[in-house]
């Protein structure tokens, strides 16, 4: 059974230059206890998709479609109901903890604030619970650390603090936005293991451009490009046997594959190509690719791809 069902989701931003189609007709499902990776280049719409789910975008954002969580359409909820759901049932680990944590508020107090908001505990009980959560994410000497400010934490500890805030109300679904970005190799490995441990019985949407992270944690992956999903399937099917030319190019551009860049650049989200969005950069493109926009096509064993090579 799916915990989350996203149908035809659009998230657009009006600007003086035109409408930015950051997320465009996206379908995505996450089952109970499933970990789904959302991978792609910077600027393809991954973070906007995650923030659309928890409704943390600016009021100017135009969001339509359906985001069904446990049978309820999140987009139809009143803001008060959404605040109750956000954090308690769906929690997001925001990108860049240095910017996301309040610099003038002690880390323990930031966790306590969330606990008091959603669980109704008094100040003392919430502080005790905050220390326990810091211990659960392997922060040593948690009682002392709870009384420190974010600038007194290392980068890895700040990421752990963000995970602690996320876990403070025992959510069912976690959205993790680039949780290993900017970390050294040793700390990255520790954070990956921590995320594995804390999501054993939870569902997670892992937003990342790091394929090694996706391979380590996720059951399935969706490849995003220019606001839409181009390929989706079991993690090793997609990474070992990529079908879409963009997925193959993205994988081959990694250092371990020889740093072979994809020619050209991603299209403007204001002025998208009329046909396949990857067509101007694709070595397999035909005349049909320039005219028609391909639909997602089912392949074998749950693998699907948006490409005319498979129709």
What does this structure look like?
- The protein is built from twelve helices and twelve strands.
- The longest helix is centred in the middle third of the chain and has 14 residues.
- The mean pLDDT is 92.
Question: Any idea what the radius of gyration is?
Answer: 20 Å
In helices, the fraction of residues equals 25-40%
Question: Are there runs of 5+ residues with pLDDT below 50, and where?
Answer: none
Share in β-strands: 15-25%
Strand order in space, largest sheet:
6-7-8-3-9-10-12-11
Number of helices: 12
Characterize the main sheet: 8 strands, mixed
Strand and helix order: EEEHEEHEHHHHHEHEHEEHHHEE
TL;DR?
The protein is an alpha/beta fold and about 300 residues long. The chain has helices at about 45-55, 80-85, 95-100, 105-120, 125-135, 140-145, 155-165, 185-200, 210-215, 235-240, 245-250, 285-290; strands spanning about 1-15, 20-30, 35-40, 60-70, 70-75, 90-95, 175, 205-210, 220-225, 230-235, 295-300, 305.
């Amino acid at each position: 059974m799916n915990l989350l069902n996203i149908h035809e989701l659009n998230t657009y931003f009006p600007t003086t230059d035109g409408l930015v189609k950051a997320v465009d007709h996206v379908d995505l499902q996450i089952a109970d206890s499933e970990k789904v990776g959302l991978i792609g280049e910077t600027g393809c719409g991954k973070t906007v998709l995650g923030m659309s789910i928890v409704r943390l975008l600016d009021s100017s954002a135009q969001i339509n479609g359906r985001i069904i969580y446990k049978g309820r359409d999140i987009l139809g909820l009143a803001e008060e109901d959404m605040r109750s759901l956000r954090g308690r049932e769906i929690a997001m680990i925001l990108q860049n903890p240095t910017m996301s944590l309040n610099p003038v508020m002690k880390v323990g107090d930031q966790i306590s604030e969330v606990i008091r908001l959603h669980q109704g505990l008094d100040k003392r009980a919430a502080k005790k619970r905050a220390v326990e959560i810091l211990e659960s994410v392997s922060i040593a000497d948690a009682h002392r650390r709870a009384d420190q400010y974010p600038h007194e934490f290392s980068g890895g500890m700040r990421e752990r603090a963000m995970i602690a805030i996320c876990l403070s109300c025992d959510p069912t679904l976690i959205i993790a936005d680039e949780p290993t970005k900017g970390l050294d190799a040793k700390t990255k490995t520790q954070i990956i293991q921590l995320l594995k441990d804390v999501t054993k019985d939870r569902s997670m949407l892992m937003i990342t451009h790091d394929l090694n992270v996706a391979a380590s944690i996720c059951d399935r992956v969706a490849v995003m490009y220019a606001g839409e999903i181009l390929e989706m399937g079991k993690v090793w099917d997609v990474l070992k046997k990529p079908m879409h030319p963009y997925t193959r190019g993205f994988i081959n551009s990694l250092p371990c594959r020889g740093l072979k860049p994809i020619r050209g650049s991603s299209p403007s989200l204001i002025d998208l190509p009329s046909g396949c969005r990857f067509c101007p950069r694709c070595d397999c493109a035909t005349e049909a690719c320039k005219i028609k926009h391909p639909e997602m096509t089912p392949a074998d064993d749950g693998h699907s791809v948006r490409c005319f090579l498979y129709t």
